[in-house]
Amino acid sequence: MAKIAYFNGQYGPHSQAMVHIDDRGYQFADGIYEVCLVIGGRYWDMEGHLARMERSLGALRIGMPMGVASLKVVMNEVLRRNRLSDALVYIQVTRGVAPRNHPFPADEVAPALIMTARRFDLDQSDTQAAKGVGVITAADIRWGRVDIKSISLLPNVLAKQAAVEAGAAETWLVRDGLVTEGSSTNAWIVTDDGVLVTHPKGHEILGGITRETSLACAKDLQIQVEERAFSVSEAQNAAEAFITSATNLVTPVVQIDGVKIGDGAPGRVALRLREAYKERARRVSGA
Ligand code: PDD
After folding, report:
1. What tens digit of pLDDT does each residue of 69-87 get?
2. Quick one: 212 and 154 in the same domain?
3. Which of 9, 63, 122, 208 is most buried per CB count within 10 Å?
4. Cα–Cα distances in angstroms (integers) from residue 28 to residues 31, 89, 101, 152, in the given order
5. Which atom of ligand 1 is nearest the CA belonging to 212?
6. 245 lines ligand 1 (CB under 6 A)
């Protein structure tokens, strides 16, 4: 079955989904995006993703392309037309199409919205989580507002490519000796006392929606949390480490720069949190 995308205000074959060469997303990376996880036909953390989308757009002074209720209709329609039950839905909004010029277009232009969906394999994700993944580290060379989910992702692309070339799943980014987050995930450790540690929200990290839900799960499980930065060596000596994102859910990290974490097997706390996350998402997910 041909994949269907939403673009230029309509649904059509993904292979024919073209955007204008003067789209400011293409020219300037002047736009934002969201990646939403869908399991069993239901969006997980949909409200969180939509709220962050509004925040990102607001920070860049780009208007919402349509109201939230209409967006939800398109989100569900993209799923339906692709006959997907477990999926990752990609949403992108740019400032729109205008002749190339750095300032915002003087004349009102409509923000450009695209939406695509692809199948997500939860079993494969579970298998990966059961094995755990390795991460490497690299300097965080990104700009000062990475809390905006901007499509300007070159440092993230380079960091992820470095991970791939090193046979790792992710690169943790390090600023002033401290881990901020991964190239497309949030970074966590578990101390010997069983305390979860992750970088506080602010301009230096993207506030992950999965991070937020994981914090709620930790509270439910009465696991103590400290939102503070940690160094690479603290992480290498931690009891456990893991990453979170819509694409990874909660995935244990078993190696950092070649150093085994704990006994080198996925941590108990991380796996417990993964199960709690799945359970919570199933319970509260909406469409
Ligand atoms: N990435 N940090 C960064 C830099 C990210 O790009 C992402 C998400 C996260 C986790 O956010 P969330 O839990 O809301 O998915 C943290 C998406 C999945 C991507 O770029 O594909």
Report:
1. 999 999 999 999 999 999 9
2. yes
3. 208
4. 8, 23, 9, 8
5. 13
6. yes
